[in-house]
Amino acid sequence: MMKYSEAVDFLDSKVVLGVKPSLDRIKAVCRMLEEPETAYDSIQVTGTNGKTSVSHMTAGILKASGFKVGLFTSPHLETVRERMTVNGKLISASEFTDVLSKLKPVIEKVEAEVGEALTYFEVVTAMGLTYFRRESVDVAVLEVGMGGRWDSTNVVDCDVAVITNVDLDHVNELGDTREKIAREKAGIINEGCVLVTSEPDREILMLFAQRCEELGADMKVFGRDFRLEYNLAYRVRGETPAQIISVRGLEGMEFNEIKLPLLGKHQAVNAACAIAACQAYTDRKERTDVESYRSALESSSVPGRLEVLATHPLVLTDGAHNVLGMDRLAAALTGEFDYERLVIVVAILADKDARGMLKVLSSIADELILTENRSARCISAQRLGDFCRMERMEHQVEPDFSKAMKLAYNSAGRQGQICVTGSLYTVSEARIFFRQQKASREMRQDR
Q1: What pLDDT is stored for residue 168 in this prediction?
Q2: Which CATH architecture describes the domain 4-298?
């Protein structure tokens, strides 16, 4: 059997560009593995924003309701093992290596037969599906990597499909209009499944409704079939606020006074989506217990989504990576926190609308610091500075992430607030930075 480092290297060798979108490769792998995706129920989650949060909350609710739950998410922040968990526990390094060791000859055989290499995401998906069967999960919650129709998670015949929302992102791969992107995401709707969506646009909803009618699927819409009754944020200087939410779920079931530790009204809507998705699934299993839903949501956490890294000053990191995500982040920062000065540290990938994102951030920041993360696709800090100068936005340029954070601390002071954002790669950079800072402090204390 290969070593863990060899398993990771093999997986990394699958990072290739220009592979045509197709389900043929993943279906061929699953056939050779005797269709692991049919060994359990499944819930698929897609959307431009919010899909990771909805996936985590959905898995948490189902676990609290007594199910054994596999959760498959992407991308990871620090280790690829984050992508597959069972009842909240990451796959171990030894299990990861064992699964891939057994999968490797199947992958190589399929590649030889179809004459095409599997992608990184296809291999990871196959691993997740196989691992969940090995662990005898009752249900798998699968976050779509991109789009839906051609995503390798779409090898499953899901019981519940969730489409959080549709906006312009990944336009080169999914299309340059919201309608085109919506059609790609609607590809996860299966015959007889239940679609849960919080998409507000009437034309997009009509597109979803047509797809559901064609396939005999049921459609549950936020604001019509389930809704957020209210959310009340608590603002406490220097501490992390929570929000109290009440949701009217499917069939009028009430979920009142839930203390949600995830911040922003968008997370309250995501929580409502997760509740509806779990109701749609558990109603078939006769396991809808309001208190289980409450306990799961009140202990929920989603790494990299307004995640608190430090206090005094309060330092948050958020993986917002498109204009809609930045709009929601800005609303949360200005509406739910109390600070004297807001400093934003940002690094953005090259395939994003950097100018639009910077416009949103500059409208709320007292100080905007442009930096870089470790991704080869990161826009240079100097280039971000060019965008800011074109739009006459005040900014500082510091390509070195550690130095950028020191600038942010000096600018914010103890009563200020720092937010690190622009990409999940930037979130990872921030988490590594603070872990190293903590280790350095502990070493000094031991001397």
Answers
A1: 66
A2: 3-Layer(aba) Sandwich (3.40)
Which of 326, 56, 302, 24 minimizes the C-alpha distance to 169?
326
Give the pair of three-digit tokens for residue 305. Answer: 């989504």
Could you give the CA distance from residue 130 to residue 40 in angstroms, rounded to a whole number? 11
Q: What strands lie across the sheet with 254-260, from one edge to the other?
A: 227-233, 243-248, 254-260
Amino acid at 128: G
Contact 55, 70 (CB under 8 A): no
Mean pLDDT of 68-86: 94
Per-residue pLDDT at 240 exceeds 60: no
Euclidean distance between CA atoms 315 and 109, whole angstroms: 48
Q: What is the C-alpha to C-alpha distance for residues 156 and 193, in angstroms, rounded to an integer?
A: 12
Q: What is the pLDDT of residues 166-220, one digit of tens each?
A: 986 665 666 678 899 999 999 999 999 999 999 999 999 999 999 999 999 999 9
At 371, give phi and psi (nearest 5°). -140, -165
Please answer whether residues 213 and 181 qualify as being in contact, where contact means their C-beta atoms are separated by less than 8 angstroms.
no
CATH architecture assignment, domain 307-446: Alpha-Beta Complex (3.90)
